[in-house]
């Protein structure tokens, strides 16, 4: 039996991060965690690009443009949507999750590092707090998936 697994070596891979500026006090640590992960696993600074968008709602359209460019091996979507007292949360979180369709349509892996939490405290806990850094985890997934796809060619 042949088993395919992606390595965690980011050397020579190109990454785009798309980050929603809304709730930036939470999103900035996610971005920092993702960049730190990519660097620690061998990505060069010149191989990492960051695109800031107004909020999580705009992430999929920018991720699609970046994926279509052919310049990136993987994309990391980062943002934060906190549940409020209206249905707005469902619309924004649902739209942000559309990055999965970007990956399916383009073949470029798009990791979902958008926090969708009930409280701001839960978001802080996942952006470098007691629950770790989901930006780091999304970047690690981007490395592994890009390497796996390269192995499957």
What does this structure look like?
The chain is α/β, with parallel strands linked by helices. The protein has a single domain, classed as Lumazine/riboflavin synthase (Rossmann fold, 3-Layer(aba) Sandwich). The chain has helices at 24-40, 59-68, 88-96, 99-106, 120-126, 134-151; strands at 15-20, 48-53, 74-82, 110-117, 127-129, 132-133. The strands form two sheets. Strands 2-1-3-4 form a four-stranded parallel β-sheet, with helices on both faces. It has a two-stranded antiparallel sheet with strand order 5-6. β5 (127-129) and β6 form a beta hairpin. α2 (59-68) runs parallel beside α4 (99-106).
Considering the chains and any ligands shown, give keywords for the structure:
single chain, 153 residues, alpha/beta, Rossmann fold, four-stranded parallel β-sheet
What topology emerges from the helices and strands here?
Blueprint: E1 15-20, H1 24-40, E2 48-53, H2 59-68, E3 74-82, H3 88-96, H4 99-106, E4 110-117, H5 120-126, E5 127-129, E6 132-133, H6 134-151
Parallel strand pairs: 1-2, 1-3, 3-4
Antiparallel strand pairs: 5-6
Largest sheet: 4 strands, parallel
Please give the CATH architecture: 3-Layer(aba) Sandwich
What ranges have pLDDT less than 50 throughout 5 or more consecutive residues? Answer: none
H-E order: EHEHEHHEHEEH
Number of strands: 6
* CATH domain class name: Alpha Beta
Structural category is alpha/beta
Number of domains: 1
First and last CA, distance: 18 Å
The CATH homologous superfamily is called Lumazine/riboflavin synthase
